[in-house]
Amino acid sequence: MSVCRPARCLFSKGSTTALPKPSSPSSHLRPFSTTPSRPARKRRPHYPSIKASELNLLNTAATSQFPNYTTNETDLLAKRYTPSQIAAIKAAEAAIDPRDILTQGQVRTDPWRLPYKSDLSQIDPVTDHADKLSHHDLPKNRSFRKTNESERDAAITQVANETLAKLYPDGVPEGQLNPTQEKQLQQAMEAALTQAVLDPRATYTSKDPATVATLADPRHSIVLPSLPRLDNKMAKQTRRLADEEQEDPRQKQLLQYLGWDKQNLRGIRTKTLVVHGVTNQTRMGKIRSMYYLTIAGNGDGLLGVGEGKSVEPEEGRKQSVVAAIRSMRPIPRYENRTIYGDLERKVGATKVQLYSRPPGFGLRVQHLIFELARAAGLQDLAARTPRSRNKMNVIKATWEALCNQRLPDEIARARGKKLVDVRKVYYGGSVH
Amino acid sequence: MSLVNLAHVCSHMQNASKARLGLTSIPVSKLHVNLMLGLQKEGFISSVTLGSTTPPKPILLQSQPAPELLEAMADKLESEPWNAYPTPEGAKPPLGGENVYAVAVPENPAKRRLWLGLKYWNNEPVLKHMQLVSKPTRRIWLTSEDLGKITRTRQSSFVKGLTRPGECMFLTTDRGVLEARECVERRIGGMALCRVWG
Fold first, then answer.
1. B108 to chain A, minimum CA–CA distance in Å?
2. How much of chain A, in percent, has pLDDT values that exceed 70?
3. Which chain B residues are within 8 Å of A415, Cβ to Cβ?
4. Which value does ipTM take for this structure?
5. Domains, chain A, ranges and CATH?
6. What is the CA A49 to chain-centroid distance, rounded?
7. pLDDT per residue over A371-405, tens digit each?
8. A83-95 and A71-80 helices cross at what angle (nearest 10)?
9. What is the CATH number of the domain that holds B31?
């Protein structure tokens, strides 16, 4: 809409002017904005539309592959299950659309698939931790011995044949095979052989066929298949393979120094609070490098401050992070929330005064001290920096003050006094 | 009664603890003696001895009871532990008399000094800071109500609360030199002298 156009035209009815009419015949007033009206905008559906013929195809495929129970089948089910179980089965059947299974579900056909159906999103106590039988369940004392070479080969062949028979109930396909079928057969044979070697019947044997049957019984196996599962989506997304991850030599050294593993390092929060450039004047000229000051804390009573300087910015930052984690020291906290009494510390021209405060007071401190307090896990604190407020010195002074607190027990020991904490004696100890 | 001398004592104590001295001396006055005994009671200093300008013999150089005597005493205590309790006055102590070390105090009061043993714990002085509350030109008298607030870390009568861990304040009252918390207990007020902390 042009500014040159007079206001008279803007507010006048479309029919009375010679100006072009708006596209919508229902509105007589000219629109005030250039944005097209809502119906005029092209609407796109959230998902692509499926043609009726294609939908029909999908429906027939779904019903043929995942048919509903016939009356015969329901009668058979009624013999096995109670009416409430039947109701549950029906509800489950109704809840899942066979089309969804067909389009989204993936049915495993490989020889290593589990003997039951599961999407592995949850641990099912019945199927995943199946009942096991112990030696007490055996009817009488059974003796067995180790197999010799020939018995072992025979057992492996037998078990492999059994497994193959399970995979190919109609018999192993013969004659000319297409490449996919051939590959599948190859896979199946490999799996069958591996499973046969691992089978206890390949290692032990007995004259008594009942003992051999016991060996074959998976309920007697002490091996519980542990399923590699990831709990939440975040962990799944951030999962990386071992070879993918870069081994940082600096991090390795740090872990060695601390005697930690990587898991512990994840709980440490670091924050770079001061960054600035510094220049070294040499006879060759100025050499610029970056200075970093980083704090590290676990939010539960550990706090460290580290400095790093390098010509390479990233290098300097890493240096400071490692130095901060290395220098982490325990911070004594009163009731895990505030400090023991008032503290004062001077570094250079900077003086920092820290005051302990009652519960719920919060961190009413300047931003640098706030970051330190948060990293150390302090919740109630007040502070003053009456003199210089040099950032680096404020951080160092606060850290030193927090680290070098004099504890009441120590003071009592030094003065030869007996100290008793009566704070949690009254009100049933429910004092915060 | 000027507080100037007390101010000098405060500074001297801070300097002596900074220099890690084990023994130091201050001029003798009734106020100083009472205050130092209060400090000793609170555990800030180890010993208070009236002496001359030369320091008193350290306890390790004083005459000690013979080892056989100590052994006999230990045996007796083991068999009859009730002997550790104090005896009524006038009665003969069952474990033998106390070993009292006499210190020569000069006749001339100007030659007398008060010798104080300073304490250290974990390589840190027990008494690090000692500051006047009342000043020579401005005395501060506090009531027991004021002291109640001050010992609960609140400010009262323009005196800051005792907020540092293990901080003590001494007052001179009509019952002698007392610590602030003791004054609150006994509900008496007085003139604030100094505050002490490690």
1. 34
2. 80
3. 42-44, 119, 126, 166
4. 0.85
5. 61-104 (no CATH), 135-220 (no CATH), 249-330 (3.30.160.20), 343-415 (3.30.230.10)
6. 35
7. 999 999 999 999 999 999 999 999 999 999 999 99
8. 130
9. 3.30.1490.10
